[in-house]
Design a protein that fits this description.
There is one protein chain. The protein is 43% helix and 25% strand. The protein has four helices and four strands; from the N terminus they run H-H-E-E-E-H-E-H. Strand 3, helix 3 and strand 4 form a beta-alpha-beta unit.
């Protein structure tokens, strides 16, 4: 791996760490339900980087809100900012699907009924082979 890619990876890890240290209220709320394999034994990582393109100059990546590696699944929380980023979100979802990653988007408002959200997440994960 070239020196620039090592630098990029260090920067990616730094960016993910910064996001973990400044999670939104919604992310904190859902993380409390997903951490420590609380949801049916599924292990989740929070603010997990996913490299989607290596163009020989730099690594391109997304940072997933929550990632379950055993199911290659991402749970994304969508707050109000996503109402104006539909094109970017679609591009991101397409790139992740091309990597064989499944995505479940949840609106922040849905967290008001946490039990329903957890049932939806479990159902989503259970349908992935």
């Amino acid at each position: 791996m070239s020196r620039s890619k090592n630098f990029d990876f260090a920067e990616i890890k730094k960016h993910a760490r910064e996001l973990r240290n400044s999670m939104t209220e919604s992310e904190i709320l859902l993380w409390g339900e997903l951490k420590n394999r609380k949801l049916s034994g599924y292990k989740f990582l929070r603010q997990h980087p996913v490299i989607y393109k290596d163009d020989q100059i730099r690594l391109n990546y997304f940072i997933a809100d929550f990632y379950c590696s055993s199911k290659r699944a991402i749970i994304e929380l969508d707050g109000p900012v996503h109402d104006t980023r539909e094109d970017y979100d679609q591009f991101r979802d397409d790139e992740l699907h091309n990597l064989g990653i499944n995505i479940l988007r949840i609106k922040n408002d849905e967290l008001k009924n946490m039990s329903k959200v957890l049932i939806n997440i479990k159902s989503f994960l259970d349908t992935i082979s």
